[in-house]
Structure formats: structure tokens, C-alpha cells
Amino acid sequence: MKTNLNNIEESGFKVPENYFENLEASILSHVNLKEKATDAGFTVPKDYFSKVEDTILTKVTKKEPVKIIPLINKKTIFYISSVAAAILLLFNLNIFNNKVTYDALAYDTVENYVLNEDIATEELATLFNEVDFSEEGFEAISFSDEAIQDYINDNIELNDLY
Amino acid sequence: MLNETVFLQQLQSKNSKEQAFRELITQYKERLYWHIRHIVKSHDDTDDVLQNTFIKVFKNIDNFKGDSKIYSWMYRIATNEAITHINKNAKRLQITNEETQELAINNLQSDVYFEGDEIQLKLQKAIATLPEKQQLVFNMKYFQEIKYKDMAEILETSEGALKASYHIAVKKIQDYLTKD
């Protein structure tokens, strides 16, 4: 079909929804506001704008004094020595290779451990094998009468004997 | 001003940088000053932010690739610096950003660089009730008369959205001013 100008009744342009309904309010609120206050009321100090270039340029072009850092100074030597000493100590102290053996433990240490840890008699008993005890072992130890008397006095209540 | 590409080359060349930078400050000092002033309100704070903005521009101009116009890039730096300034003040005073702004407006009454009357003071209070983005749009359009096209580039928002935002802002302010 050939396009005939007479057949085109609309331009095809559209406006947003409610555009004309809101137009008066939109223009009027802007006009009303402008009537009330055209500017914010802020002012600036006299000559501020004529000096601001120099103020900023002085700041951005200010040359920082160049720091001279000597390659070897006391501080550097101190740091390097500390690191070297730490590494040497790590290898020489040999703290990681020490293996603890039962033989190396002092009797007092073990005794204190047993006392402090509050280990029950039954628990201790489980640690001993039957072979650890022999009659000879007991025979070899002799207690004095006095020691036996002290032990009875300290540990046995009269009621326990009944 | 010179062609933007040539001007950028001058700003990035060691020999002409200082002279070109002076020219850049002269061209934009007032526009950026007023943009910042409407955000932070006091002259002293504006002066700090304006100087920081130009110092940042000077330090970063060598990395500026020209993807946007120099002025819109500078406006973005100024906006960020001004908002950062408000945030820092809020943190220092241990109050919210809104309270910082309220404080800045209350201080206007005793500010020697504020000559506004009662209506202008009320207008500032009305602006402070708007969300941050609407405040920016309102200030840029109403007081600085920046074109929507330029504003769209600065705020990286579509012109349509900016127009809608501005009309909502005007309506809210008008309502605030006439409510009592």
C-alpha cells in the first residue's frame, strides 16, 4: 500500500503519563520558590578568589626535603645483627631435638607430678605389671619400729580397726 | 579555553604543568567553590575541600585518560571530597551525617559569611530534609543552573532520572516552606 499523507492522522509523538496534569504544579512550584529565594545567601571573604590560585599552587609545588638514608648506619647494623643472632640461636639451642627419657627424670620430679596430679591409687596400680613386684623386692626393705608406729599414728584411725 | 586535548597535554607535560594548572584553577575555582559550598555550607570547610580537590586533581592528572571531560571529572572529585568531609566530621563528633548537616545549618545563623534571611535559612533546612542525591541535583540545578546534560555526566545518571529527581525535590521543598 502506498503511503498517502492524507492517511497519516497522528504524528506518533507521545507524552509521559499525567504530564499535562502535573505541568502547572511543577512550573508553579519552581516559580514560587524562585520568588522566595533566588540565591542561598552565602558570601565569601573579600579577595578570596583572587588568592586561591597561589594558595593551592604553593601547596602542590612545595618540594619535600630529600631525605638522605645512609646505606649502613647504627640502626641497620642493629637490625641485621638481631636477625643473625636469632637465626644462630634457633640452630644452636637445639630445642627441637631434645627427647625426654624416663631415666633423665629426677625422682623428685616424678613424685611431685604424682602428688600434684592427684592420681588415684587404682590408677597407679594399673601402671604396674605383675612382674614388677617380687617378694625379694619387699624383703629387701626393712622398716624401723618407729617408722611403722608413726605410719599407724598418722594414717589409721581407731575406728578403721573395728 | 584551549581545545581540551591540547589543554590536557599541557597539564600532563612536566614543562607546562604548573602554568596549565594555574589556568585550570582560574577557570573552575568559582564553579567548584559554589558546588562544594552548597554541600558543606560553611566557607572554611569549603576552602579546605576546594584545596583538597585541586591538590587531588594535580596529583592524579597524569593518570587521567580523558574518558570524560576534565570538568566533569573535577566535579566528581569535588563531590566525593565534600561528602567525605561531612562523613569525617560526623565521625569526629560521633553523630550521624544528617545531624552534621543540621549542625552546619544551625551554625549559619552566626556565620559572618551567611547573609541569608529567614526564608533562605528555611530553604537550607528544607534542602537538608532531602536524600543526598536529591540535594545534589537540587543545588546543582537551582543555584548553579548546571544543564541536565552536564549534570548527567557528573553524577553518572540519566537526564530523565535527574529531571524527575529535581521536580520531586522542588515539590518537597515547596511543601516544607508552605507547611506553616
Quick take:
The complex is a heterodimer of chains A (162) and B (180). Chain A is mainly alpha-helical. Chain A is built from seven helices and no strands.
CATH topology of the largest domain in chain B: Rna Polymerase Sigma Factor, Chain: A
- The coarse silhouette of chain B is globular
- Specify the oligomeric state: heterodimer
Q: Estimate the mean pLDDT confidence of chain A.
A: 76
Quickly count the helices of chain A: 7
Low-confidence stretches of chain B: none
* Biggest protein-protein contact in the assembly: A-B, 25 and 38 residues
Protein name (chain B): RNA polymerase sigma factor
Domain RNA polymerase sigma factor 70 region 4 type (chain B): 121-173
Family (chain B): Belongs to the sigma-70 factor family. ECF subfamily.
Pfam families (chain B): Sigma70_r2, Sigma70_r4_2
Explain what you see.
Chain B: It comes from Lacinutrix gracilariae. Chain B: Residues 121-173 form the RNA polymerase sigma factor 70 region 4 type domain. Chain B: Keywords: Sigma factor, Transcription, Transcription regulation. Chain B: Residues 24-91 form the RNA polymerase sigma-70 region domain. The complex is a heterodimer of chains A (162) and B (180). Chain A is mainly alpha-helical and 162 residues long. In chain A, 52% of the residues lie in helices and 0% in strands. Chain A has helices at 19-36, 48-61, 74-92, 107-117, 121-127, 135-139, 145-155. Chain A starts with 18 loop residues before the first helix and ends in a 7-residue tail after the last helix. The model of chain A has no long low-confidence stretch (mean pLDDT 76). Chain B has 180 residues and is mainly α. Chain B is built from nine helices and no strands. In chain B, helix 1 (4-12) crosses helix 2. The longest helix of chain B has 24 residues, at 17-40. The mean pLDDT of chain B is 91. Classes of the chains: A mainly alpha (162), B mainly alpha (180). The A-B interface holds A 25-26, 29-30, 32-33, 36-37, 39-45, 48-49, 52-53, 55-57, 59-61 and B 18, 21-22, 25-26, 29-30, 33-34, 37-38, 41, 43, 47, 50-51, 54-55, 58-59, 113-117, 119-121, 123-124, 142-143, 167, 170-171, 173-174, 177.
